[in-house]
Design brief:
The structure is a single chain. This protein is about 75% helix and about 0% strand. By secondary structure, the chain is mostly helical. It has one domain. The model has no long low-confidence stretch (mean pLDDT about 85).
Length: about 160
Amino acid sequence: MTGAAKRLLLEVLGWLLLVAGVAALVLPGPGLLLMAAGLAVLSQQYTWAERLLDPVLLRALRAAAEGVETWPRVIMSTIGALAIGAFGVVWLVDPDMPNWWPIAERWWLPGGVWTGITLLLSCVIALVLIVYSFRRFHGKPEARAALEGEINDADERRHHEDDED
């Protein structure tokens, strides 16, 4: 692969991941994780992406830590992830449209099988992240304090770099 083709491929992949991450902030899916992956790819080409990568990664870790801070949050996070997986199964099974469905048939389970696959993939990613977050942060205030310190340091570095520009 030529240098130009590799650069184009990385750029397209980075932007796709970044846009998917922004969309996943409001849709089911690991938004901050996808944004971080997109920034990681784009950081190979752009210094602005490199500067944004650490703050996004650290905020994703903060969200992960907050998601397992208490048992009700762990339970609700797990239920939410499993609900996304259940919807994915419904999309894959593709049941007939029920009689009570009030709108056009084309709006019954839009996206087809690929929607189901992405919902199941989101479920698996969410469950893995819950387990990771639980093991790293639950009942460990020192880990949370260290993370907050890293976030503050990254913010200070970014503001310092912005002042230099």
